[in-house]
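Appendix B.2, paired examples.
Example (i):
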Amino acid sequence: MPIFSSSVRPKCDLTVTRYKNFSVQICQDRLATIQSLVRNDETLLVVCGIDSHFSQGSQQLFDYLLFNVNQKRAAEIERTKLEDEHFDDVVLSIRRNRVQVYLNPANYWFYLPYVACWPNLDIHCAPDALFDDQDVMEELKMKFLIQAVDGCNSVCVAYYGKESAGFSPMLVEKWPLIQAYAVDGFGVGTFFTLKHQLRDVSKDVFGLIQSVDAVAVEDLTDKPLKPFKNQFDSVFQTIDFLAGRSEPQLVLEEKSLNQLIEVIV
């Protein structure tokens, strides 16, 4: 059960029409695929934003599970006038048969539709009245972390991005959230790596992220087709323009058109 007040989780009513490039089934499949990497006595910890020094691995895994929501709905985020740190304030604890999510009152309703369909989900979110009390919010986040890793001998992290290599547990120990874990009276009073082994699953995670599903195909076709369409529109406009020119001018303009086509191809 959540360790502090949380709104009742509403029924997930997402449709591809309402949220483009989203599928409830694929959302659940992506989570299940990531859960397959986690052993019975482990949790996969995903810490976003400043709490992990903007870990590339955590962010890419978060983007994969939530369909790059921050990029796709960037205009909506900008209209909120909230700082980016409010949307980065997310922690996921993924076990084989359970998921715990820490959100804050600012990003709760934004991310909720993308995680609401996950099975065996616990969402931890402070009441709106506590949002402006930074000390209380940090304390609640620490309580979430302590509970999220409780009983886990090993904690998985996707520390690096696909371009990185090498891993040391001490790199994770430097994360601000993990450092706070060791503060006596705030965390548990001992270093995180003394209580939990750290296992880097970056290679496995990014191997799965590279796999192609229906939404990934839709994303791939969305991005290149728009500039490609603009290029062809430019070609057709040039053709229409040439159709009204005299023959000597047409010979010169035809060379320009051929050069343009070569650039496109």
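Example (ii):
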Amino acid sequence: MTFQMKSIVFVLLLLPTFSAAASWETSESTHFRVYYRENTVDSASILEIAENFYAEMSRITRHIPDETIKIYICDTQKAFQAFVHAPIQDWAVGCAFPLSWRIIIQNPKQITVAKLQLAQVLRHEIAHVLFGQYTKKAVKGMPLWFVEGIAIHFSKEWVPGRHETLLKNVFTKSVLPLNELTIKFPASQNGADLAYAQSQDALRWFVEVNGTEPLWAVIDRLHTGLNLNTAFESVLGYDLTTFDMQWRESLPKRYHWASLLSSSYIFWGGLAVLFLFFYFVSWNRRRMRLNKLAQQEEVEDVFFRK
């Protein structure tokens, strides 16, 4: 009786998902199946983006099962939340479940509002699935900053504002230690933006200092089941704590005062200040000329004396 009740509950829990999926359109390619509402997205372009990126990741894909990755493109925020079936922040536009080969993507219009592109969100989430499958023996306890940094690195993701976000926090000395980004990212939009910016920069700095092959060496060790700390020690000769310290020490050197020139906020802000300065100088000169003319007019001309 207990077993039957559990089975019924399990089926009931799955009914919303199955019923929702049944009313969706589907398109399929060699490695992907896309679920979407009719007339909401161009499924052919989505499959093309996905397959092209899959081909780029051959160093991983040749070592993992040839399973179909399911991509759900939701048409509403409510549908997105329902399909994720887990707590997720309002600012999230995509979610990957690597071990179940599943990706949930927000409404493309919402992605645009977030100043992102559907293509880069797709590549990012596919990177999560492929990397997660390749390193599933070491998935337990893997730091979130590294997982997100890898997805950004592989997908060649570029998000406007991340450079400025990190630059601002370097100058205000409010960069978070990487060990605070191990389990979860901050819930706020600003905190999450900083966490993603740090994750991206940490991986970029790793490659700049050590090269691409050492990064792959770390990933290959994760594939064998080593945890990230041990993999770092094996490849680099030092642990994550040392890496975190060295990375944070590098930030002021790489994001120094000259970097202000590359910040759009500082650039346009500087132009605004210069404009106000020259406007004030011009206004002050005009005022002085008018005052001088007024003083001259007050002097009585001898010609008009009686």
